């Protein structure tokens, strides 16, 4: 049985209950999420061939410090970096290092800032120089998958509607959906209930209610969906070494649908790709 709880009275840990946030909390999330979005906007002009991912990590840390924010990943469960940088066949949780980006790479940069106790979580894909058409198509399919998942969010629907919308579209485009990782509740906690699966059926999962806040972050592969985690305990890669991509937004359920907290103020939600025509 799914339990819902008013966030203002909830304990400061994940108990499995789903928090329902009020308008004040939504305002706090807007502030945190927009700082994250601004950082991701700035990175669009910085990500170039030859740039070490450690330099991206330093930028994320310094941007946060300059704006009164703490990167949520820094020292989280032993993780020592301020961001995750996942290149090519890395599905998620890639660790920044001294290795430079190369022409034709695609890289996901995942940033979460904590501002006044609120967690703003988002990620985007960045083409490095000129990329192959297959990689560009993967980015387009992954971003569209995210939008279709978001469009399924409304009070009374179930979390499975998000997964069904993503899976139906991605598999129809001859791509696969990673099952090993999912979206999650977020707000006053970095990771909270419920889990948001990127596959499934519309009739499954907890009911969406006004006040819920969570991430939608589909990981889409050009090849098969299977992944493995490397010996560092963090880096997840595709088993068949096919390209993988991910875009992520934090959303809040409203009476009419949802609010996307992490939209780019500069219109760079899919940097490096042609303008989206719908």
TrEMBL record:
Cofactor binding remark: Binds 2 divalent metal cations per subunit. Has a high-affinity and a low affinity metal-binding site. The true nature of the physiological cofactor is under debate. The enzyme is active with cobalt, zinc, manganese or divalent iron ions. Most likely, methionine aminopeptidases function as mononuclear Fe(2+)-metalloproteases under physiological conditions, and the catalytically relevant metal-binding site has been assigned to the histidine-containing high-affinity site.
Key word Protein biosynthesis present: no
Recorded GO MF terms: initiator methionyl aminopeptidase activity; metal ion binding; metalloaminopeptidase activity
SUPFAM superfamilies given in the database record: Creatinase/aminopeptidase (SSF55920)
Top EC class of this enzyme: hydrolase
Highest classification ranks of the organism: Bacteria, Pseudomonadati, Pseudomonadota, Alphaproteobacteria, Hyphomicrobiales
Gene responsible for this protein: map
EC code(s) of this entry: 3.4.11.18
Sites where the protein binds substrate: 93, 191
CDD domains registered for this protein in UniProt: MetAP1
Substrates-to-products reaction catalysed: Release of N-terminal amino acids, preferentially methionine, from peptides and arylamides
Tagged with keyword Nuclease: no
Assembly, per entry: Monomer.
Family to which the UniProt record says this protein belongs: Belongs to the peptidase M24A family. Methionine aminopeptidase type 1 subfamily.
PROSITE patterns with a match to the protein in the record: MAP_1 (PS00680)
Domain Peptidase M24: 27-254
Annotated keywords: Aminopeptidase, Hydrolase, Metal-binding, Protease
Binding site for a divalent metal cation 2: 121, 184, 217, 248
Function: Removes the N-terminal methionine from nascent proteins. The N-terminal methionine is often cleaved when the second residue in the primary sequence is small and uncharged (Met-Ala-, Cys, Gly, Pro, Ser, Thr, or Val). Requires deformylation of the N(alpha)-formylated initiator methionine before it can be hydrolyzed.
Official protein name in the record: Methionine aminopeptidase
Originating organism: Rhizobium grahamii
Amino acids binding a divalent metal cation 1: 110, 121, 248
Cofactor needs: Co(2+); Zn(2+); Mn(2+); Fe(2+)
GO-annotated cellular components: cytosol
An individual GO BP term: proteolysis
């Amino acid at each position: 049985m799914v339990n819902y709880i008013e966030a203002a009275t909830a304990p400061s840990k994940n108990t499995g209950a789903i928090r329902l946030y009020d308008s004040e909390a939504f305002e706090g999330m807007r502030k945190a999420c927009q700082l994250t979005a601004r950082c991701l906007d700035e990175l669009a002009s910085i990500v170039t061939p030859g740039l070490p991912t450690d330099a991206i990590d330093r930028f994320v840390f310094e941007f946060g410090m300059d704006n009164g924010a703490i990167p949520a990943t820094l020292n989280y469960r032993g993780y020592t970096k301020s961001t995750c940088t996942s290149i090519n066949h890395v599905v998620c949780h890639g660790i920044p290092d001294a290795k430079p980006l190369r022409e034709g790479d695609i890289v996901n940069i995942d940033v979460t800032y904590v501002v006044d106790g609120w967690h703003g979580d988002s990620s985007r894909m960045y083409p490095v120089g000129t990329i192959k058409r297959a990689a560009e198509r993967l980015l387009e399919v992954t971003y569209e998958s995210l939008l279709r998942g978001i469009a399924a969010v409304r009070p009374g629907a179930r979390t499975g509607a998000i997964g069904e919308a993503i899976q139906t579209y991605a598999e129809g485009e001859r791509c696969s959906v990673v099952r090993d990782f999912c979206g999650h509740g977020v707000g006053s906690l970095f990771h909270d209930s419920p889990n948001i699966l990127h596959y499934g059926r519309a009739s499954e999962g907890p009911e969406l209610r006004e006040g819920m806040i969570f991430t939608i972050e589909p990981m889409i592969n050009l090849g098969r969906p299977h992944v493995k985690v490397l010996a560092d305990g963090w880096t997840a890669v595709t088993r068949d070494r096919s390209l993988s991509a991910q875009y992520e937004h934090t959303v809040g359920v409203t009476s009419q649908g949802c609010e996307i907290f992490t939209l780019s103020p500069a219109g760079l939600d899919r940097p490096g790709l042609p303008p989206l025509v719908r």
